[in-house]
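Session log. Operator J.P. requested a structure for one protein chain; no other inputs attached. Running the standard single-chain path with token output.
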Amino acid sequence: MSKIAIFASGAGSNADRIIHFLTNKSSSIKVDCILTNKKSAGIYEVAKKFEIPIFYFSNSDFAKGTVVLDFLEKREVEWIVLAGFLRKIEPVLIEAFMNKIFNLHPALLPKYGGKGMYGKFVHEAVLAAGEKESGISIHLVNSDFDKGAILFQVKCDIANGQTVEGLAEKIQKLEHDNFPQVVEDYILNFNRNH
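Structure written below.
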């Protein structure tokens, strides 16, 4: 049984989809816990709905890295999925979970990545540049923002007069439709080969 920890800072819609998908489909991957750095985040409702334990860690706990690492090691967590988690992952965690941390970026990397590029800021930049398409990138996390190995990309067209909200909806649908499957496929494939 491969244990996942989900890190989330927001409403948790991707976490919801991943937990739902794995609960109904995968017998060999389990979402063990959720970690958050926001006491009032919507992710608490997702945790309650699926009866997944959720733990709050302060930004300084995350910044230290070892506090979170010790916690994950005690729970025997093997994988981390970032689902709307708005902090850079500390080197100590990246080292301990080398090639085992997933992130989703709401654009076609390497374009529109990096510090401060999340959520509507990405969509605004894509539209301001006059792009004809956008999409999502699911990638492994390394020590540089949005520079880890890309596992999966899928595109969507940008309509004339596309609004930021409209693009955000298209991107979120791609996220929900693809993120859980990519995570499952990668973990199962990794387990088969190791």
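Operator note: The chain has a mean pLDDT of 95.
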